[in-house]
Amino acid sequence: MARAGLTAERLTVAAAELADEAGFDGITVSALARRFGVKDASLYSHVKNLRELRQRVALYTAGEFIDSIAAAVAGRAGKDALIAFADAYRAYALAHPGRYAATQHRVDPELLAGSTVMARTADTTYGMLRAYGLSEPDLTDAVRLLRSTFHGYITLEAEGGFGHPRDVQKSWERGVEALHVLLEHWPANEEKCDG
């Protein structure tokens, strides 16, 4: 009875929920099978192995993550878009630590092939940066800077790494404002183009 209705999609959503409860590394076939009241072997007709299950979770949560950011950024530009993007990024990561950890894992190209997640992520991120007038390779450099800054801050915050009495929210707001100033005054690119 519990076995009826199992699909790769249902297993993926349940595994994402498990990630928030037990951490991304806490996703196991046994733990998931217990949730559905079935034997481990029952899941293998829906997912090949643990690696595929975790990759499905990574892809699913990446879509959920960028959709929440896109909704926050919609209709905004410049500094307002950057703030909305940053705040939505942080809110998702802190509310869903296991799912957020999943978004940091690479997904095999064959699993990505049927998904629009990467395109939505690029559209949302590059669209948010459009007002700053950056072109390649500066655009990629800016995306990497933002991602590493947000990830580092959130990771330290989630692990209680900020011991100073200064309000963490205020530091976040000032940091995002500083990123806006930096993006407005992005240093000139000295790289020479081939050709």
From TrEMBL:
Keywords from the named record: DNA-binding, Transcription, Transcription regulation
InterPro entries for this protein: Homeodomain-like_sf (IPR009057), HTH_TetR (IPR001647), MT1864/Rv1816-like_C (IPR025996), Tet_transcr_reg_TetR-rel_C_sf (IPR036271)
Transcription regulation among keywords: yes
Record-linked SUPFAM superfamilies: Homeodomain-like, Tetracyclin repressor-like, C-terminal domain
Domain HTH tetR-type, residue spans: 5-65
DNA-binding region as annotated in the record: 28-47
Coiled-coil residue spans: none
One of the Pfam families matching this protein, by short name: TetR_C_33
Name of the protein: TetR/AcrR family transcriptional regulator
Organism: Streptomyces mauvecolor
